[in-house]
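Quick sanity check, Phosphoesterase:
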Amino acid sequence: MKRLRIMGTASTVLIVLILVNFYIGYHLLVLVQEGLPNISIGWFWSIFMLVAFAYVVGRIPLPRSLKPVGRLFKVIGSYYLACMEFAVIMLPLADIFYGVLRLTGVQHDKYVLETGSTLVVLLIVFLVWGSINAWSSVVRTHSLQIDKSTGHSLPLTIAVASDLHLGNIVGNRHLKRLVKRINEMQPDLILLPGDVLDDSIEPFIRNRMDETLGQLKARYGIYAVLGNHEYYGGSIEQYTKVMDNIGIRVLQDEIVEVAGTYIVGRKDKTADAMETAGRLSVPELLKGIDLARPVIMMDHQPTGFDVAAKAGVDVLLSGHTHRGQIAPNHWITKRLFELDWGYLRKEKLHVVVSSGFGTWGPPIRLASRSEILKLEIMLEGSKKYSDDAAVSGNTILI
């Protein structure tokens, strides 16, 4: 039954994609025929559909000699995904415009070139603006008060970077910006709350991104957890070994104690579907620890805030949502999650959800920014912050 449900869902998605792309392709064909009236309809649709499904084609396992072709298709397909979202929003508006012209008796056919050119210019602006948001990151600083003690009164500085999505799109150039900015913070801890990889580990190894990531430095160490994309890639054992070799420990339902503070790393909730044992509940995971000490937990997907608060977690760090990555998707993520981005206080629990450093699919962000978090954890005996000042809004462009 489960396999049938998966096949049914996949079939439905495929049909929807075909219909959507036919709708987009038809409008593009009308525009192209304005300049090339004798264009071959067969060639047009063959090329268009190849581009439209290039991301899917790029994920097909290919012989080693053809892998560069597959990577090229994945890059082309990634950018098309952004173009497709733009078209789905803008083309209905263009159709409404033409409908109004038709109802008012205006000869609408002569406005095809003008309307199409306007949409192309808007698409270029959208891609350029979205690229700037994706590649130029910001650092957001949060100062969080925890009424617990570690035996000293100094604040704990933690650098947090989620959703790097390192692969064929996000590579060493963007990663070097991350390493430079985090090391400039001179953090006590560095935490990576999942989706370091963009599915496949192959480009991560081939491009020696592990060597770049290994240049991160923190006084008390670097810790990561698994995200859903590490599970999709299917190389978790290899990934954890590679990370361990560069001094980054991947916590899988594990707890470490550093500087008098517990760092808790949960498995991603994908484990419940892809592993027989699933993952531990938060109370099970925290069983036996001293809750008089600060507890900072990484859980890739931002869910279960009430459970974490009742279990005694002080800070919960998540990512996953990218804040929708491309508007208006953030309206959807805002409805799906109690907190899809930013800060939330839940009883004594501080929840911080990052929009992520990298991108999935196209390296485009709209109403979302690539970001790194800098947490200043103020402990008992440190300077107190009022609830209204629990989060500072200091933002630095990099």
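Posting the structure with no commentary besides this: The first strand starts at residue 138 and ends at 145.
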